[in-house]
Amino acid sequence: MTVTVYISCDSGALALGAERIAQSVSREAQQRGIDIRLIRNGSRGLFWLEPLVEVQTDQGRIAYGPVQGHDVSGLFDSGFLNGSPHSLFLGLTEELPFFKKQQRLTFARVGLTDPVSLEDYLAHDGYRGLHNALTISGADIVRQVTDSGLRGRGGAAFPTGIKWNTVLNAEADQKYIICNADEGDSGTFSDRMVMEGDPFVLIEGMTIAGIAVGATQGYIYLRVEYPHAHKALTTAIAKAYAAGYLGQNILGSGKTFDLEVRLGAGAYVCGEETSLMESLEGKRGLVRFKPPLPAISGLFGKPTIVNNVISLASVPIILDKGGEFYRDFGMGRSRGTLPVQLAGNIKYPGLVELAFGLTLRELLYDFGGGSANGKPIKAVQVGGPLGAYLPESQFDIPLDYEAFAAIWAVVGHGGIVVFDDTVDMAEMARYSMEFCAIESCGKCTPCRIGSTRGMEVLDDIINGRELNKNIPLLRDLCDTLLNGSLCALGGMTPYPVLSALNHFPLDFGLTDQADAA
Amino acid sequence: MTETASMQTTLQDITTRLKDKPGALLPILHEIQNAFGYIPKDSITVIASELNLSRAEVHGVISFYHYFRESAPGHHTIHLCRAESCQAMGSKQLEAHVKNRLGIDFHETTPDGKFSLEPVYCLGLCSCSPAMQIDSEVFGRVSPETFDRSLAKIGA
Ligand SMILES: Cc1cc2nc3c(=O)[nH]c(=O)nc-3n(C[C@H](O)[C@H](O)[C@H](O)COP(=O)(O)O)c2cc1C
Ligand code: SF4
Ligand code: FES
C-alpha cells in the first residue's frame, strides 16, 4: 500500500530546510523501492519542529521533527512509514499540546491539506460557505457577517459587517473587493501562512464578499516579499476558474466574480488602505484624505471593500456554520478567534489560533515556553512596528481589543515579538523612528520630518546628552506625531517610542519612572 | 539585433501587452524588472508615451518604491531582514558580519559584481528569525556561520 507522507512547502519550513528534506525522502524511498505519496502541505505552525515530517497511519498522522538531512535514512531504517519509534518521533500531530489546545476555525485546513488541490479543499468542507451564500440574498450574507461580530484583523479592528453594508448600499456601476495582503508588520506571518497553506479559503471569502455586495472584480494586493504565496495564489486562482468557482456564471448562479493578484513593491505604507488603492491604480502610494471612505469612493473612485487576508479567510466558515457559531467564541466585543503569531526570542515560535481572551502570559509561557535562551523576557511588542512595548507587569492582560486599548496598546494583527533582558529599549525606540522615516509616504510634515528629528533626539538621549531637555523634546515630538499625522504610520509611531520610554526609563539613562514623566 | 535594439523590443512588448490593464504601471514595472533585473532608463520614455504619463510621473513612481531599482544588481541579491523579530534574535550582529564579509553596505554591490545587499523589513519568517533571502531562496535562524556556508554554496 502506498503511504502518504507530508512535508510542508510553507516558507517558514522552507527557510529551515524542508525542500532538502522532501527531496531526500523521495530519493531514499526510490532507492529502497518503496512507493510513497509525498504531499507538500502548509505548515501546522509549530516552527521549532520544522522541518516536520508527517506520516499517514491508521491512527492518524504521526509526526517526526525537526528532521535534518542526516536523519532521513535512519527514519526509513526504523520504519517511520509505519509510525514506528525514533528519536524524532512526536506522536500524533493533533495530540501535540501546542496544537491540541488551539481552536482553529480560520486555520482549520492549514497544514492538513494540499494547499493547491481543489479536490482536497472540497473534501475538507471547502466552498460550503459559497454554496450557502449563493442561496441567500446579499443583505442576508452581510447580516451573517455582521452577526458573527467579525472585526477587521488587519489592525484597526473595524466591524467587517458594517463596512460591507456600506458598500452593499452604495449605488454604482462597478464595485471592488480588495484583499490587503501587504502584511508588512514585523512578527506577523498568519496572512502568509493562509495564502501559502490554504489559498482557496481566501479566494472563497473574496468571492462571497463580491456576491454579497455586487462587486464583480477582486484584487489581492500582495507584498512582493512573498513569492511563495504568489505562486500558491495564482495556481489556486487558475484552478478555481477552471472549475467554475470564479469568472462568469459561478456554479451556474448567474453571478460573476473575477480575481487577480497584484504585487506591491516594497513599501510598508501601501498596507494602509488608501495608499494601497493609489498603488493599485499605478501611482505612488501616497495616503489619501478620508472622507470619502473607500466604501463609498475607493479604487478608481468606486465603492470598495478593503479587508485583510484573515478577515476574508474567516468569512467561509461564518457562511458555512452561521454568524452565531463564530460569535460564540471570544470575549466582550472581541468575537471569534485570533490567529496569534509568536515570534522573536521565544522557545516555541509559531501560530496559535484561539478565541479572544487568553492572557499574554498564557501565550508567552504556556504556548511559547518562555524565551528561546531561558533568559527573562523583558518586553514584548504586540501588533507590529506601530504597536506598544509591554513590560512583564502587563502580561496578565487578556487578548481583547478594548483591554489593550485601555492600557494604550494595540492587538493589531496579533503578532507578538518577544525580547529577552539583553534588549536596549532606547535602541528599539530609535529603530521605530528610523522605520517611520524610511517608510513615510511623505505627505505630512510631522511624519516626514518628525521621524528624522526623532532619530536625532534619540541619538542624543542614547549618548546621555542633556536628558532634561531631550526627554521633554521627544515627548513633544511624539505629541505632534500623534495629533498631526494623516495616517497611523506617523500617528502610531509614538506607541512603541513612548511605551518604551514609560516602561523602561532606565534604558533611556533615567533613574526611575518619575524622571521619565 | 543589437543589445539596445533587443532591449527596446522587450520594453515595447511588455508595455504594449499590459498597458490596458487598469492601473497598469506597477505590473509593467514588475515585468521590466523581472526581465532585466532593474528598470533601464530607456523604459521610462516608452512607458510614459504608452500610458500617456509624463516621464516625471513614471520616475516618481519608480523612486517611491523600495523594490524597484534603476541600476543593474549583482549576480545574486541578498535580502537581510532588519525588523524587530529578527533584531530580537541577533540580526544586528549578523548584519555587521554580512557587511564586513562582503565589504559593502546596504544598497551596494560588491566590486566584482557578484552580490548586492538589500535590507528588508520582514520576510514573514519571524518564527525562524533572523531571516534572509538570497535570490529566491529563504533562510531562517541564520548565524554568521550558516551565512558563510550559504555564500560558499553560491560561489563566493
Ligand atoms: C501604515 C499602515 C500599514 C498597514 N498595513 C496593513 C497590512 O499590511 N495589512 C492589512 O490588512 N492592513 C494594514 N493596515 C490597515 C489597513 O489600512 C486597513 O485598516 C485594513 O486593511 C482593513 O482591513 P480589515 O478591516 O479587514 O482589517 C495598515 C494601516 C497602516 C496605517
Ligand atoms: S503619517 Fe506619514 S505615512 Fe501617513 S500620510 Fe502622513 S506622511 Fe504619509
Ligand atoms: S522580522 Fe525578520 S522575518 Fe519578520
Structural description of this entry:
The complex is a heterodimer of chains A (517) and B (156). Chain A is α/β, with parallel strands linked by helices and 517 residues long. Chain A contains 23 helices and 16 strands. The longest helix of chain A is centred in the last third of the chain and has 18 residues. Classes of the chains: A alpha/beta (517), B alpha+beta (156). Chains A and B meet through helix 1, strand 12, strand 16 and helix 18 of A and helix 2, helix 4, helix 5 and strand 5 of B.
Secondary-structure blueprint:
The complex is a heterodimer of chains A (517) and B (156).
Chain A: E1 3-7, H1 11-15, H2 18-31, E2 36-39, E3 53-56, E4 61-64, H3 72-77, E5 89-92, H4 97-100, H5 118-123, H6 128-133, H7 138-148, H8 160-169, E6 176-181, H9 190-197, H10 199-213, E7 217-222, H11 227-242, E8 258-263, H12 273-280, E9 304-308, H13 309-313, H14 315-321, H15 323-327, E10 330-331, E11 334-335, E12 337-344, E13 350-355, H16 360-367, E14 377-382, E15 389-391, H17 401-406, E16 415-420, H18 425-439, H19 445-462, H20 467-484, H21 488-492, H22 494-503, H23 513-516
Parallel strand pairs in A: 1-2, 6-7, 6-9, 7-8, 12-16
Antiparallel strand pairs in A: 1-3, 3-4, 4-5, 10-11, 12-13, 14-15, 14-16
Helix pairs in contact in A: 7-8, 7-10, 9-10, 9-11, 18-19, 18-22, 19-20
Chain B: H1 3-18, H2 25-36, H3 41-51, H4 55-64, E1 76-81, H5 84-88, H6 91-102, E2 108-109, E3 115-120, E4 132-134, E5 137-139, H7 144-153
Parallel strand pairs in B: 1-3
Antiparallel strand pairs in B: 1-4, 2-3, 4-5
Helix pairs in contact in B: 1-2, 1-3, 3-4
The complex binds flavin mononucleotide (FMN), iron/sulfur cluster and FE2/S2 (inorganic) cluster.
